[in-house]
Specification:
alpha+beta, 29% helix, 29% strand, globular, binds 4'-deoxy-4'-aminopyridoxal-5'-phosphate
């Protein structure tokens, strides 16, 4: 695999980053994941806007323009012959040459790392037909979940705990209310209305969420952006999650409760179809 490090394209075993990099020592960095279908990028502009915002929120230097990012994504897709899969990008605050809590001087160059992951048949994931089993766990992350940082230890722990309990993934809960999944936004459907938590610093502002909510409204589906309880979710007609790599993925169980009929619901199935159609139509 050919990867990108600070403007260079190298075989992955030749790509290196300093042990003093703040991404490594302090989780001082941000990332994005853009899906690829038929060699083209999905919702690219949305991901670039969020990257820009994450960098600004942390006072980090923007290492490349949107045009340069696009060129780098396209080059990696071409060099690695990616049909379906994803491009991962990460920007960290670079290498100050030592360990210090204080940020390094503004002119310290950020570290950029990018790589591809090939996922043949990404849009035909059989999990979309079986649905996910979700376990609920307390949300023990920091309070700025709107910034897409590489500080992913708690979501990893939650995912492992969910798997240990026989679930596919976890929904995290704070004050009795669902925040989001370990790597996706969470939704329920009740009496035809789609409910998902309102945007705030409590959750990541999902790019897929924004597209799915827009498409739902265009399809005349009712949408309510508000918090919901675990009890409400267990009693819902349907549930689902969204993310750039899973698209729209139905949820069929929450803890011991079966959601609806226990099979992927019609709203989730329809949104998945509408979303994939729109992504294929607008991919670049
Ligand atoms: N919430 C969290 C915590 C995530 O990690 C992700 C995926 N990165 C999402 C939501 C979904 O965001 P997006 O649709 O932009 O992939």
């Amino acid at each position: 695999r050919i990867v990108h490090v600070n403007g260079r394209y190298l075989p992955e075993d030749q790509a290196t980053v300093s042990i003093f990099d703040r991404g490594f020592l302090m989780a001082d960095g941000v990332y994005e994941v853009v899906s690829v279908l038929d060699g083209r990028l999905l919702d690219f502009e949305g991901h670039m806007k969020r990257l820009s915002r994450s960098l600004d929120e942390l006072g980090m230097t923007h290492p490349m323009t949107d045009e340069e990012w696009l060129e780098a994504h396209r080059r990696l897709i071409a060099e690695n012959d990616i049909t379906d899969g994803l491009v991962y990008l990460q920007v960290t605050r670079g290498n100050p040459g030592d360990r210090d809590f204080a940020y390094p001087p503004k002119d310290t160059p950020p570290t950029v790392v990018m790589f591809t992951q090939s996922k043949p048949g990404l849009a035909e994931n059989p999990q979309a037909d079986s649905g996910l089993r979700i376990c609920t766990l307390p949300d023990l992350r920091w309070a700025r979940r709107d910034i897409k940082t590489v500080q992913l230890l708690y979501p990893s722990m939650a995912k492992m705990e969910a798997k240990a309990r026989g679930c596919d993934d976890a929904w995290m809960v704070e004050d009795g209310l669902v925040t989001e999944g370990t790597s996706n936004n969470a939704y329920i459907v009740k009496d035809g209305t789609i409910v998902t938590r309102q945007l705030s610093s409590d959750i990541l502002h999902g790019i897929t969420r924004a597209s799915v909510l827009r498409l739902a409204q265009e399809a005349q589906l009712a949408v309510e952006e508000r918090s919901f309880t675990v009890e409400e979710a267990r009693a819902a007609d349907e549930a689902f999650v969204t993310s750039a790599s899973a698209f729209v993925m139905p949820v069929v169980a929450i803890d011991e409760a079966t959601v609806g009929t226990g099979a992927p619901g019609p709203v989730a199935r329809r949104l998945r179809e509408i979303y994939l159609d729109e992504m294929r139509r607008t991919a670049i």
